[in-house]
Amino acid sequence: MAWLVTGGAGYIGAHVVRAFREQGIDVVVVDDLSSGHAEFVPAGVPFYRGTILDGELLATIFAENTISGVVHVAGFKYAGVSVQRPLHTYEQNVTATAVLLAAMQDAGVDAIVFSSSAAVYGTPDVDIVTEATAKNPESPYGESKLIGEWLLRDQGVAAGLRHTSLRYFNVVGSGDPGLRDTSPHNLFPLVFDALVEGRTPRVNGDDYPTPDGTCVRDYIHVADLAVSHVAAAKRLDAGEPIEPVYNLGSGDGVSVGQIMSTVAEVTGIAFTPEVGPRRPGDPARIVASGELAARDLDWKMRHTLDEMVRSAWEARQAAS
Ligand SMILES: NC(=O)c1ccc[n+]([C@@H]2O[C@H](COP(=O)([O-])OP(=O)(O)OC[C@H]3O[C@@H](n4cnc5c(N)ncnc54)[C@H](O)[C@@H]3O)[C@@H](O)[C@H]2O)c1
């Protein structure tokens, strides 16, 4: 038996693939390489290159492999861009999820772990977000992730799908020097690219109502996140109870200013970040409790902030 990882050639999916294999569980990957990298898929892992919008491809994958469940990581993750490209975002995150669920139903595969996002909360008015905090997505991206969760819930009612959605907060770091976040929009790659190219990294706004004026976020290490996917899959395989949603957050806020200082320390490149204007829609602070996931999904912060920055920097350097 194997688990299918959609988006397994991407930053998070590739770490999920490795976490499953480390625990002796076989995986199969499907990825269209729209933002992923074939070289992120380890040798020996069956890899289907194609889009999950293609129901026939999915039927072939389910026919050719014995799949007990799916970790559905594939998606279009650029929240800012989603405002300009809502139809594309909905196609990739909503239609694609519906096609996947239909193919699973046809193949009799009834367990799924879904990559959801902190973006479902929008700008929360609480210090610590819990799973019960109101959902107010502020972009087509956040909306599409919430609809993805609803699709799973409704398919659970209609067809007995067993499911959980993991709402990731700010995923950073690297669990393997060969794997890194190559997003052109995320903080770590932006800062590292600037340093490598001799530019000064930039902070978007330093007049927020936070201790140092920069936005406060909840940074989690990608390898810690990956472990919880395996725990969720094991619960589903064992028929154990599982919550419909879990926050994967640290309970601890770190400011963008603190990240910049840590980057300067780790890289040995002294710099004072440029301060640009606030980005529209950026909440001052978003930090989540991961208590529920700690109870059920072996969730804990196994890495410090320094390790998150260092591992990401090492992977960035290995790539250049
Ligand atoms: N990185 C974060 O901080 C973060 C936070 C919250 C949620 N997420 C979610 O986690 C998931 C993975 O994010 P990531 O950071 O690894 O991004 P990523 O872009 O590196 O990975 C996404 C992968 O999915 C593949 N893909 C996209 N559309 C596909 C399709 N239609 N068919 C097949 N493959 C497809 C891409 O080629 C890529 O390999 C996404 O769904 C994202 O929304 C990420």
TrEMBL record:
From which domain of life does this come?
A: Bacteria
Give cofactor(s), names only. Answer: NAD(+)
InterPro entries to which the protein is assigned, alphabetical: Epimerase_deHydtase, NAD(P)-bd_dom_sf, UDP_G4E
Q: Which Pfam families match?
A: Epimerase (PF01370)
> In which pathway is this protein known to take part?
Carbohydrate metabolism; galactose metabolism
Q: Which gene encodes it?
A: galE
Among the GO molecular function terms of this UniProt record, one is: UDP-glucose 4-epimerase activity
Kindly state which reaction or reactions the protein catalyses: UDP-alpha-D-glucose = UDP-alpha-D-galactose
- Domain NAD-dependent epimerase/dehydratase: from-to ranges: 3-249
- EC numbers for this chain: 5.1.3.2
Q: Which family does it belong to?
A: Belongs to the NAD(P)-dependent epimerase/dehydratase family.
| Protein name as annotated | UDP-glucose 4-epimerase
EC class: isomerase
Entry keyword set: Carbohydrate metabolism, Isomerase, NAD
Q: Which species is this record about?
A: Leifsonia virtsii
